[in-house]
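hiii, so i know i said id send this last week but things got crazy w the move. better late than never?? heres the sequnce for the chain we talked about at the cafe, plus the structure i predicted for it. fair warning i was half asleep when i ran it
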Amino acid sequence: MNDHLQVRPGGAGAELRPMHAGDLAAVHHLAQQVSWPHRPEDCALMLQLGSGIVAIDAAAGAAVGVGMRWSFGDGVGTIGMMLVERERQGRGIGRALMTSLIADSGARALMLNATAEGLGLYEKLGFVPTGLVRQHQARFAERPVLPAVPSVPLRRAGAADHAALCTLDEAAFGADRSALIRRLLANGVAWLVDGAAAAAGFAILRPFGRGMMIGPVVAPGEDEAIALVAAAASAAPPGVLRIDILARAAHLGDWLTAAGLPAVDTVTTMLRGDWPAVPNAPRRFGLALQAMG
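okay and structure toks below
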C-alpha cells in the first residue's frame, strides 16, 4: 500500500489519503453507483494485491472518490477502479486521484482500460489509446450449447502446473503477475494447452461479480484460445458468465457470440510509457480483470 502518501488536496473541497481496508465499503458503494458488478470480496482482493487512494470530503469526512493501482515489478503497472461520486464529477477529483496514482507509480509504464467518460482525462494525462477490449457476457439458465471447437490437446491444470502458468502469463503480459495468477488459481480452476514439451497456454475460470469469469486467457493462437474458453465455459455453472477479450481476437469474438455470449460493452486500452515486448511470446486473448490487464 501507499501508506507513505501524505494528505493532498483533491479538488472540490476534498482531500486525498491512502486507501485502507476500512474504505472497502465505500469502494463497493461507488462501484454500485455505476452498476459495476464487483462484490465486496472482489474489491478486497484488488486492494490486497495493490494500493489505492481515497478522496475524502473535507467537511463531512465521507469518501467521494477512489482509485487503485498495481505494480508488477519495477517496470510496469496498471491503474483502475477510478470512481467519483456522481454529484462530484467534473470538479477535478478524478484528475487529482489520477495525478497521485501516476506519481506514486514512479517511472513505470502504465496501462489502463478507459470507459468513454474517462478517455479525455486520461489522454490529457499522457495516456495513448492502443486498442479495444470487448466484454462478452450472458446469463444462462443452464450450461450453454457451444459451437464447434478446434481440436487442441487440453487438460485440467493441477497445483504442479501453477508455476508454468505464471511463466506463460509473464511472457504474454510483459511482467511478472505471479501473485495475481496464484490468487486467481486459488479461487478457480484452470485448463492448459498440453504442448509436446510444456504447457503452451491456459485459461482460468473463477467467481467474479454477478457470477463467473473466464480470464486471463493466454495461448499461442486463436484456435487454442477458443478451445480453452470452450473448456472453461463448459464447466461454468448456470448463471452469469463473463469474459473480457482483446477486440483484435475477431474469431474468438465471433465464436463467443455464436455461443450466446455477445459483446455488451467496450473499453479502450491506453498506455503511458513504453510497455515491454517479449519476442515469440504466447498471446494474451482474455484479461484477468479490466483493472489489472
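btw Confidence is low (pLDDT under 50) at residues 1-6. thought thatd interest u
miss u guys!!
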